[in-house]
Design goal:
This protein has about 525 residues and is α+β, with helices and mostly antiparallel strands. The chain has a single domain, classed as Cytochrome P450 (Cytochrome p450), CATH 1.10.630. The chain has 21 helices and 13 strands. InterPro entries: Cyt_P450 (IPR001128), Cyt_P450_E_grp-IV (IPR002403), Cyt_P450_sf (IPR036396).
């Protein structure tokens, strides 16, 4: 004991920090200082949001409480947003999300922004870059060009009537392949693949929609992008490029791009060559996204890798949200089976009269209403219209949106506002059908794809989701095929729909929920 005490006394302090101990200590201190300095600089460099009230936990002085505020939002996102909406209903407030603080605007500003704020003041692309960490998820190449937006706004919408029959055919084909008889299946696994197939029919015809390798990529890609972004988000921005290459998820995204190029390159090369040759295909010209991309691409956008990236992004943008909306509607049909009969009869009536045409789709008013009500109560995200303020914006009441700030609209809170919707927490499948039938002026309002201050699920204004009309057709085709060909129900003993899964600002249907499909023929 005495010898040990003597040795301890003789051991000088510098001896403790020699060799590997010294190296580890210096490295740890250096990294800690760099992160703290970076956080301090970011805090000072960020936009000044102090004039806006804060909902939920605030980051505090110099962001010392930032981690706690993010954890609070992750666990209690809907509660924080809805409490902020009720408390500051006539104004705007700030909410700390998992990535950045956002100014949650009152919906009253929507029309003013659409009417008076120049498009170059608010950037949708920068908002997406921040949410998806595009530099690390290989999406910068897409956001650097408006090609994907332009083709969705113009040729996709203009040719929608030509896509209805093919989409219906694709939905029927894959349902018969996957559910040949009475089966109990996980709704998520089934619908994600059906939606992937119907979307792929629009992207590149049956060459793409019947390609199993591509369909697996289309079904998985959106969640894989989100997974990489979630894993990288806790790290400071300057560290993400160093960490991303080592993530297995990043390697998975690279494999998705490789698969996409393999599947789409031959088709793009063939279409680009035909366009360059000047051959007029007339009525034989393909009606799909590959053709519209090939015709609309200019300069660097004509690169096969860029075009392939655009196809991946369209899968990301469309498959996940359309799948979730379809699944929610099926859950609501099973929880409220009294709606199945009237909706099925309407589908059979309009398709018997018009076939699978735009007139038939427009005639599915009860189904349209049911989809919109289901979406109202089960939105894919709590907030929409996510933009970055590129240039300062001053609104008519004096509210100033500072450069560098991120803005959003409280879509979920608006959808549950009793001043807008009577008995808002009650599911009324024909709520919007009855509104449309109430008068001629209301006949063309309250549709699934309609946007406005009271309906924010698809965003708002000139930059509202350009693919929402296609999404409406696609979801109707899938649900209609299911109702015509199958009886659907929850497993025996279950009557209530499962609770949604909330993580921060995201809302998902329960992927574990099974449905029983029984062929009607």
């Amino acid at each position: 004991m005495a010898a040990n005490a003597t040795m301890a006394a003789d051991l000088k302090l510098p001896d403790l920090f020699r060799g590997e101990y010294e190296t580890r200590l210096i490295s740890t201190v250096a990294i800690t200082l760099v992160v703290l300095i970076w956080g301090y600089v970011q805090f000072l460099a960020g936009p000044n949001l102090s004039k806006f009230p804060h909902a939920g936990k605030a980051p505090g002085w110099f962001g010392m409480g930032l981690a706690a505020a993010k954890r609070d939002f992750l666990a209690n996102g809907p509660k924080i947003l809805n409490e902020g909406y009720r408390k500051y209903k006539n104004g705007s407030f700030v909410i700390q999300t998992l990535n950045v603080p956002r100014i949650v605007l009152n919906a009253k500003y929507v029309e003013e922004i659409n009417r008076t704020v120049p498009e170059d003041h608010l950037s949708m692309a920068d908002g997406l870059r921040e949410r998806l960490l595009s530099s690390q998820t290989n999406l910068d190449v897409v956001f650097g060009s408006p090609l994907h937006i332009d083709v969705c706004k113009a040729p996709l919408t203009q040719n929608l009537h030509k896509l209805i029959a093919p989409i219906n055919e694709e939905a029927g084909y894959w349902l018969s392949q996957r559910i040949p008889g009475k089966m109990e299946v996980k709704a998520y696994d089934l619908i994600v693949r059906i939606i992937s197939a119907t979307a792929s029919r629009m992207l590149g015809g049956t060459t793409i929609s019947r390609n199993p390798e591509w369909l697996e990529t289309a079904a998985a890609y959106s969640m894989d992008v989100v997974s990489v972004a979630v894993k990288l988000r806790p790290y400071p921005a300057f560290m993400r490029p160093l960490i991303a290459p080592w993530l297995e998820g990043t390697k998975t995204l690279d494999r998705h791009l490789k698969t996409t190029k393999k599947c789409f390159s031959p088709i793009f090369k063939e279409r680009l060559a035909a366009i360059e040759s000047g051959v007029d295909l007339g009525q034989d010209k393909p009606v799909d996204m590959v053709q519209w991309m090939a015709e609309g691409a200019r300069g660097a956008d004509r690169d096969i890798e860029v075009l392939s990236h655009n196809m991946l992004f369209l899968a990301l943008a469309g498959v996940h949200t359309s799948s979730a909306t379809t699944i929610h509607a099926l859950f609501d049909l099973c929880a409220n089976p009294e709606y199945i009969g009237p909706i099925r009869e309407e589908i059979q009536s309009v398709t018997a009269e018009h076939g699978w045409t735009l007139s038939a789709i427009a005639g599915m008013k009860r189904l349209d209403s049911f989809m919109k009500e289901s979406q109202r109560l089960n939105q894919a995200v709590l907030m929409t219209f996510n933009r970055k303020v590129v240039k300062p914006v001053r609104l008519s009441d004096g509210t100033t949106l500072p450069k560098g700030a991120y803005i959003t609209l409280p879509s979920d809170s608006v959808a549950r506002d009793p001043d807008i919707y009577a008995d808002p927490d009650h599911f009324d499948g024909f709520r919007f059908y009855e509104k449309r039938m109430s008068s001629k002026t209301e006949a063309n309002r309250h549709q699934f794809a309609t946007v406005g201050p009271e309906s924010l699920a698809f965003g708002q204004g000139k930059q509202a989701c350009p693919g929402r009309f296609f999404a409406g057709v696609q979801i109707k085709a899938v649900i209609a095929n299911i109702l015509i060909n199958y009886n659907i129900a929850f497993p025996e003993g279950q009557t209530a729909r499962p609770k949604n899964i909330h993580k921060g600002g995201l809302v998902r249907p329960d992927p574990r929920q099974k449905l029983v499909f029984t062929p009607r023929s």
